[in-house]
Design brief:
It contains eight helices and eleven strands. The longest helix has 12 residues. Helix 1 runs parallel beside helix 2 and helix 5 packs across helix 7. The termini are far apart. A hairpin with a 2-residue loop joins strand 2 and strand 3. The protein has a seven-stranded mixed beta sheet with strand order 7-6-5-8-9-11-10, with helices on both faces. The protein is α/β, with parallel strands linked by helices.
Amino acid sequence: MKPWIHLDTAQMPDGGGDLRLMRRDTEFSIMAGSIELMNSRLSGSEEALATLAWARLAGRPAPRILIGGLGMGFTLRAALAVLPADAQITVAELVPAVVAWARGPLAEVFKGGLDDPRVTIHEGDVGPLIAAAPAAWDAILLDVDNGPEGLTRKANDSLYDLPGLARAQTALRPGGVLAVWSSAPDEGFTRRMRRSGLATEVVRVPARKGGRGARHVIWLGVRG
């Protein structure tokens, strides 16, 4: 087996530690310490984050979608594949180096997704975009950290607590969807989603395309 090659290191804000971009042959990995946050061979659940949310929006015209977390672009690419030509997609990425990786060593993974005219990249925290305006988004897709239980950045907790969920609900248009990705179940977060007034469904999806192996969790909350 070929060895992993260290391509680059990025500093997360607020003392969150380092992210390392690794490559082994055609496989890429983003690591936080000894923990793998994402791998280019495991895209199934990130893609489902976009496709499951859109399936619940009933094909509404000119949708506005906010994605929290660029990662390796799997959610973005899946959204581009299903959304109409008049869609507007804003992707908020906190770590500028991740955007640079998308245009550099990870360009073959992104397959030109950042150049799609429907896409706007916001280098910064997704939280202020959620709080900026009421009824601004048809869907908010959060793939931030490792899920509702913050792993790399404690400040991410404010997206997943009750006040954060209230802000997300306010930011959605009627019938809009808040979709949240996680590597593992979290019953406490399920209860908070339902307490916030969102009609909530919990879906287990394969991490890898094809349905075998580990399964991740996606929460889908619809604003009434």
